[in-house]
Amino acid sequence: MITIARMPLFLLMTGLGAASMFLPAAFAYAIEDFHDARTFFYGALLGLILTGLVALALGNQRHNDSALRQLVALAAGFVFLPLMFAVPFHEAVRTTGFGSAYFEMVSCFTTTGATLFDAARLSGPEHLWRVQVGWMGGLVMWIAASAILAPLALGGFEVTASGEPGQSMAEGAMNSGPTSPSQRLMRSAETLFPIYAGLTLALTVMLLVAGDPPLVALSHAMSILSTSGITPLSSLGVAPSGLGGEMVLFCFFFFALSRMTFSTDTRQERGLYFDPEFRLGVIIVVAVPLLLFVRHWVASFEVGEEQNWIAGLRALWGGLFTAASFLTTTGFVSGDWDTAQDWSGLPTPGIILMGLALVGGGVATTAGGVKLMRVYALYLNGKREIERLVHPHSVGRAGPMGRRIRREGAFIAWVFFMFFAITLAGLTMVLGLYGVDFERAIVLTIATLSNTGPLIGAASATPIDLAAMRWDAQLILCGAMVLGRLELLAIIVMISPDLWRD
User: Fold this and answer.
1) Three-state secondary structure along 16-81?
2) Percent of the chain with pLDDT strictly greater than 90
């Protein structure tokens, strides 16, 4: 009989995903929405039965659980699991096609958070299912970063790893024994799941105390921890918790800036203050709102509002919260984000939000984007090259890890940036073939590749109607979201024949 520890990764994700449907079923039953209750309950039963039958069929077979196989299973999960998640969602909504339901589930599971539906169109259980799928997607990536991507030197770990991307585990030296990939996966899950669930519960309780109703509090807590930006409301600004709720959410953004906010199993051993990712993230979060504040404050003199300090402080807070939200690729917009425009009469450029989303959060977190560690590696390399222009014979003094980041790490980071830029340009051109103008195509491409779905509504000068796009264009955006979640380096590793010969 196959055990949980020996169950193939894709099958394990399928079973857990099916079992999670019981929660929206129970919620729907509690509020007497019996149609949604039956839909999610039957979906859970069907999913568990199919998973159990497949597990029984594979129980006596040997499974190749190498790190590369698990990476392929992870990619397959982001492509095919949304098909299962979309079945109860499609049946519950009743007024949408299956293609739209699949797009919604891909967006949720990749923690992108782009949506085709107005908040008022979906019921409470349907909103709960969306945010729950996003929460599970964040948990999957959190565990996979430690158990799959880190040993393969992918997902940002290639900047500091001693091996090349995809080759750390290709030798087969760690594919068996006490540190086998399957055991490492289970150990990571046992370690990280209580932290993930505990932080979600703590944030939910804080939001309840701040005044949010249970569904809103749980949804926003799950969205913050998974950086999905999914909300059952029309916007975060209408949440009953108001400014107090935003302050609570702001504190939890920092968990997406660096893994050292919740773990010490990294190469940085001197504490959170010395972690380059965290320091760079804090600098960006503080610097961008201050620059915006100065810009709006100068413009306020022209409209006679320079002494309205209450509006100025709320404008500063709106910029601070929104900058942290988009840097972590969550995408929540503060209720005071528009206060700056009312205060000065100037619009806030959406390109700033796109730039923040592109940078992204920390390595081994639920955030998307290109990751702060890669930006830091390029910064170190650039700083060192400038020093050599002034002192050609100088020697770097940052230690072995600093030299690794400046040399091999910076080179790999630059390669990743080039791949990212080529992908961005290619997707923009493809969307242009579907009649999408350049500005909207850029916004859609950056939003999907950085897994920051709310960017679609916040960065574009004119609204982008995703529901009006052709189904094949939506499918291309689905592929972009999966590609942004896994990153192109991981895809290249999976299709490289040299790494599969062993």
Assistant:
1) HHHHCCHHHHHHHHHCCCHHHHHHHHHHHHHHHHHHHHHHHHCCCCCCCCCHHHHHHHHHHHHHHH
2) 52
